[in-house]
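Incident log, structure service

09:12 report received: a user says their structure output differs between two submissions of the same chain.
09:20 pulled the input from the user's history:
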Amino acid sequence: MLCNSFLNQQSKMYNSPFHKKDISNQVFLITGGAGFIGSNLVEYLIKYNAKKVIVLDNLATGFLENIQPFMGLENFQFIEGDICNLQDCHLACEGVDYVFHEAALGSVPRSIQNPMATHNVNATGFINMLIASRDAKVKRLVYASSSSVYGDSKILPKVERQIGRQLSPYAVSKMTNELYGEIFAKTYEMEIIGLRYFNIFGPRQNPNGAYAAAIPLFINWLLNNESPSINGDGEQTRDFTFVENAVQANIKAMFAADINTHGDVYNIAVGERVSLNQLMTVLQKLIGTNLPPLYKADRAGDVRDSLADISKAQINLDYTPSIKIEEGLKYTLGWFKKIRN
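09:34 re-ran on a clean worker, output below:
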């Protein structure tokens, strides 16, 4: 259970705001706000005195523990609802100024196992939110896309305008989001911006279940004195990005002026790549163990290498990823240790 004392400690990550605009008279909706990235956005907005923060979440992959510290605050509201239900989306958007759309059904393997569920949440749920945001006349919508849209492209670093063929239903669903985002922005004159996340990690990321991400899985295994499993030879590379950088990108995208808001997308990463073997070495050092990993077969739908060109976000959004992987892993490891106590 996340306690208030730890919330206060974690808030020290946000030593200065990522925005200049006064948000004390603004209402924000965060879909998927009980989830990993969404709850970190909630924390930021509450810390900097947003007039109201509304969370819409069906708790399928989110957890009430992530938002428990905010329950009871006058400027916080939780709506247990589903983005697949258009009526829920309309209800949540009433009186809202800005929308952060973080709700999604993640995981490439899950999408291969159940493509219909992935499509329903990620594609249908997204268009529901676009319609509800349009009808409520929200000022801007910033949504989560994914580096998976680059698919089989071998080009490194990844540049927004150069993508390959998607390799999984999850990737297709995120590409669909980008297409709908651009069309809705131009057709209905909405302000919409997409953020292509590259392997976000950090506090509140779920380490449990068949579809957990690599870093929380590795940490959990090592803390349990178990050898972590790696799919493939471990030499595949990722641009691991600490969650505070993702929060920064969302806030700056929401309030950036004089930029293309008609469905434009931005890479959100650090601009550095690390192999899974290198990641494992860093975690072993931080935890104080030398447990060797167990190597398994390659996983269907995974890309081999991922590295982002973040220059577009740096120039247009003033995005400056301030926390690199080792510092981010220290924060994350500290959180995992605290929730185990």
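09:41 both user submissions now match this output. Likely a transient worker issue. Closing.
09:42 reviewer note: The chain is about 40% helix and 15% strand. The mean pLDDT is 91.
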